[in-house]
Design brief:
The complex is a heterodimer.
Chain A (H helix, E strand, L loop, with lengths): L1 E7 L10 E5 L6 H7 L4 H5 L2 E4 L2 E3 L10 E5 L6
Parallel strand pairs in A: 1-5
Antiparallel strand pairs in A: 1-2, 3-4, 3-5
Chain B lengths: L6 H17 L1 E5 L3 H13 L3 E5 L22 H8 L11 H10 L5 E2 L7 H15 L45 E2 L10 H12 L4 E5 L8 H5 L4 E4 L4 H14 L3 E7 L2 E7 L7 H5 L14 H20 L5 E6 L4 E6 L21
Parallel strand pairs in B: 1-2, 1-6, 2-5, 6-7
Antiparallel strand pairs in B: 3-4, 7-8, 8-9, 9-10
The chains are: A alpha+beta, B alpha/beta.
Chain lengths: ~80, ~350
């Protein structure tokens, strides 16, 4: 399955592009995406994953062809 | 013929919209980088009542980002302890410079000796301190350009042949040698006092209410009472979780703003509380270290917060949108937020219904 990942906020990016399509095994969950992108468990806890504006959980299944946003809030002010 | 101060805005908001803005009350939490710009823009736009809270004082490192403040707003103590705290900034060759520096130190709270990393330097400063003590009657009130001290003998720097009470180390001028101890808060000017004074000068029709307090669960209801909109201008992620919970409970709309590096992030949450901050950002938020900041980022963030606020006040509509902009990379993103049925703060899912896949 293919998922397009977009980054928002002060999140460590595994590549320079703002968004990228990546390939995952069918039926993959959000947690598998974190592993694929090289995020540690601690990092993953602070990352929010949005599908069409709705936050997914680590155990949420991803859907082939979808576009999701990985986002960390900016804390400064 | 009278001049309408808001003529340009009326073309955008309409008469009714501008009137609503002028009847509105806004609570701005924080008077730092975001709060400076948000409050300035809202007051200039004609908001009827602006309540602003901050319990901090102005520091030198605030000036690049916090547009309400300038060098004149720094207290002499801060100038002495921060501005002159670097040995390199002092220029001790000049008697007058030494006089200004030592005279402006708060001797009860600042100790310029212990911070010196070199024993030679420490001994030299001790000697200078003794000399200054002899001139305590001399004061410089800043009113005269003549900053020269009365005649004083400045000892030469000790040379290597001097007997040392400690192992000598390399004399260097790169250390911060004024050790700051906690200062007397009474003598330090609260940021909010200066902010309120400047905001009132921008628009005397706006009723500015400064509160030198840190907003908390305990004082939130009284501070938010009567406010139509709350704007988060803090720099504390865990506090935003608290603020979200309090706004959901009280049905207050609010606008979050945050910056990191060159990135600005803004999200708005309506009085319905759905979606809420936790729907988008989860319930866990750890306190972040003060990030690196491009000064344009908070100005951009605050401008966007203000634009959303004015639109909401004029047209009574606040869309739950997450917006980010990084002027450094030129990337802008927008996501329309949706309520999370499993959100523990505003969630609508009943027990036993399970969670979304």
């Amino acid at each position: 399955m293919k998922v397009t990942v977009e980054f928002m906020g002060p999140i460590r990016r595994p590549w320079p592009e703002q968004s990228k399509e990546i390939e995952l095994p069918d039926g993959s969950k959000v947690s598998a995406l974190f592993s694929e992108l090289g995020f540690t468990e601690v990092e993953s806890r602070s990352i929010n994953v949005l599908r069409d504006g709705l936050r997914l959980r680590p155990f949420s299944h991803l859907i082939d062809g979808e576009r999701i946003v990985l986002m960390v809030p900016a804390g400064g002010g | 013929m009278s001049i309408d101060r808001y003529a340009r805005q009326r073309r955008l908001f309409g008469d009714e919209g501008q009137s609503r803005i002028m009847r509105s009350s806004v609570l701005v939490i924080g008077a730092g980088a975001l709060g400076s710009t948000v409050s300035s823009l809202l007051v200039r736009a004609g908001v009827g009542r602006l309540r602003i809270c901050d319990d901090d004082v102005i520091s030198l490192h605030n000036l690049p980002r916090q547009l309400l403040y300038d060098e004149d707003d720094l207290s002499d103590e801060i100038k002495a302890s921060e501005w002159f705290s670097d040995w390199r900034n002092i220029g001790i060759e000049e008697e007058g410079d030494i006089g200004i520096f030592f005279n402006r130190l708060d001797w009860e709270n600042d100790c310029p000796v212990h911070g010196a990393q070199s024993c030679k330097l420490r001994r030299y400063i001790r000697k200078l301190t003794e000399i200054i003590d002899e001139h305590k009657e001399w004061t410089w009130d800043g009113s005269s350009s003549d900053t020269t001290l009365p005649a004083m003998q400045i000892p030469p720097e000790p040379d290597e042949s001097d007997e040392l009470d400690e192992q000598p180390d390399e004399l260097t001028y790169s250390y911060h040698w004024v050790e700051r101890k906690p200062m007397n808060n009474v003598s330090r000017i609260k940021k909010i006092q200066i902010a309120a004074d400047k905001l009132r000068r921008m628009n005397r029709d706006c009723y500015v209410e400064p509160y030198a307090v840190k907003v908390s669960e305990q004082n939130f209801s009284s501070l938010a009472h009567g406010m139509d909109l709350i704007i988060d201008c803090t720099d504390d992620l865990p506090f935003r979780q608290t603020l979200n919970r309090l706004c959901v409970l009280s049905g207050k709309p609010w606008i979050y703003g945050g910056v990191n590096g060159s990135l600005a992030m803004v999200a708005a949450f309506s009085g319905s509380g759905k979606p809420c901050f936790s729907c988008a950002f989860g319930e866990e938020a750890s306190k972040q270290e003060p990030p690196q900041v491009l000064n344009a980022a908070p100005a951009l963030c605050a401008s966007y917060q203000s634009a959303i606020a004015l639109k909401a006040l004029a047209f009574q509509k606040l869309e739950s949108v997450l917006w980010t902009c990084d002027p450094w990379s030129g990337i802008t993103s927008t996501v329309k937020l949706r309520p999370d049925p499993d959100c523990p703060i505003c969630g609508i899912r009943k027990e036993g219904e399970g969670v979304s896949p």
